[in-house]
Amino acid sequence: QVQLVESGGGLVQTGGSLRLSCAASGRTFGHHGWFRQAPGKEREFVAHISWSAGSTDYGDSVKGRFTIGRDNAMNTGYLQMNSLKPEDTAVYYCAMGCSGFGCRSSTEYWYWGQGTQVTVSS
Fold first, then answer.
1. Residue 39, number of CB atoms within 10 A of its CB
2. Which tens digits make up the pLDDT trace of 4-50?
3. pLDDT tens across 101-111, in order?
4. Which of 34, 44, 50, 111 could cysteine-pair with 96, CB 3.0–4.6 Å?
5. Residue 59 neighbours by CB under 8 Å, 6+ apart
6. How many whole angstroms separate alpha carbon 90 and alpha carbon 31?
7. What element of type H or E holds 95?
8. Which residues, other chains included, contact 84 with Cβ-Cβ below 8 Å and sequence gap of 6+?
């Protein structure tokens, strides 16, 4: 059984940075992904990275500002968030799964973290 534990959320001012981490117990496979959900909105794809190949993909709203990474030795994924904006405020979830292509839908992921709040003040 895989468990994902997130850390690193918090409150930051516009233009600031935060780094989220997601530690996986057990094996890693497929893709490590990040999604976010703001109040009253649907869960939104943020980024993903292949655990094996390291290939990445980003949602349009974060491209150029966020960087996703992974440390295979530590079974840990990361999301470095720079130039944060108030519209980035949401609960951020890490996920693991999606062994195929695309991997932008939350339904393609099998395991989820508990979520961590990111709040960007204006």
1. 7
2. 999 999 999 999 999 999 999 988 899 999 999 999 999 999 999 99
3. 899 999 999 99
4. 111
5. 44, 45, 46, 47, 104
6. 22
7. strand 90-97
8. 12, 14, 15, 16, 17, 18, 65, 118, 120
